[in-house]
Amino acid sequence: MMKRFAFLLACALSAAPVVAVAQAVPAQLRPAEAGWVSRVQDSLNAITVSKSRFQQIAPDGKRTTGTAWLSRPGKMRFDYDKPSPLLLVANDGKIVYQDRDLGQVTTIPLDRTPLGLLLRPNLRFSGDVTVTGFKHDNGLVQITLVRTANPSEGSLTLILNEQPLTLRSWVVQDAQGRETQIDLFDTQTGISLVPHLFDLPKEQN
């Protein structure tokens, strides 16, 4: 069962090898909406390190919790609470999933995942990234992003609190339309993180 869950997790956060058949269609933003997009971009770029508790809702509806560490650019660690044996680490241009019960690892290039958009060194919502959706109501700002050259590989939707402007959730939709949602809470920023947190897991012999 856990092996199947690990497979679903990898599929949900990664981009299946598909051929782009259409170009990204940008959202038609009013000036006020474009202003919000710019503010969100600047807010995310200001994040260097953070630690949060998280809840994940997988494509099959399964809910799991754990602790997430973020070190931009390029590094993230998701350590799932027991009884889940799963560990996810992003570093060195790749995402590695480990099933610690089975000693198995799965490696996916970071630039093949919608999640990689969040970890890039200089996050820009233009050029090779296209804003395809925007929503602002009930104190929340929601922005949907795709890679401009290959929007069919999946999307990343960022959900932020308006006051103060802070990241609270994201939703990754893969090429098959499956969605994985991550909700963050108890977030700490401006903290010190030990480097070994982002050591990539290795398959056990």
Descriptors:
3 helices, 42% strand, 15% helix, disordered N terminus, eleven-stranded antiparallel beta sheet, 11 strands, 205 residues
Explain the overall architecture:
The structure is a single chain. The protein has 205 residues and is of the alpha+beta class. It is built from three helices and eleven strands; from the N terminus they run ααββββββαβββββ. It has helices at residues 2-13, 31-45, 116-119; strands at residues 49-57, 63-71, 75-80, 86-91, 94-99, 104-109, 129-137, 140-147, 154-161, 166-174, 179-189. β10 and β11 (179-189) form a beta hairpin.
Mind sketching the topology for me?
Elements: H1 2-13, H2 31-45, E1 49-57, E2 63-71, E3 75-80, E4 86-91, E5 94-99, E6 104-109, H3 116-119, E7 129-137, E8 140-147, E9 154-161, E10 166-174, E11 179-189
Antiparallel strand pairs: 1-2, 1-11, 2-3, 3-4, 4-5, 5-6, 7-8, 8-9, 9-10, 10-11
Shape, per Cα inertia axes: globular
Query: What value does the Rg take, in angstroms?
Result: 17 Å
Distance between the termini: 22 Å
Q: Which structural class do the helices and strands define?
A: alpha+beta
Question: What portion of residues belong to β-strands?
Answer: 35-45%
Please tally the helical runs, counting DSSP H or I stretches of 4 or more residues.
Answer: 3
Mean of all residue-level pLDDT scores = 87
Q: H/E element string?
A: HHEEEEEEHEEEEE
* Strand line-up in the sheet with most strands: 6-5-4-3-2-1-11-10-9-8-7
Low-confidence stretches: 1-12, 14-21
**Main sheet overview:** 11 strands, antiparallel
For this entry, what is the oligomeric state of its chains?
A: single chain
Which range best describes the helical content: under 10%, 10-25%, 25-40%, 40-55%, 55-70% or over 70%?
10-25%
Beta strand count: 11
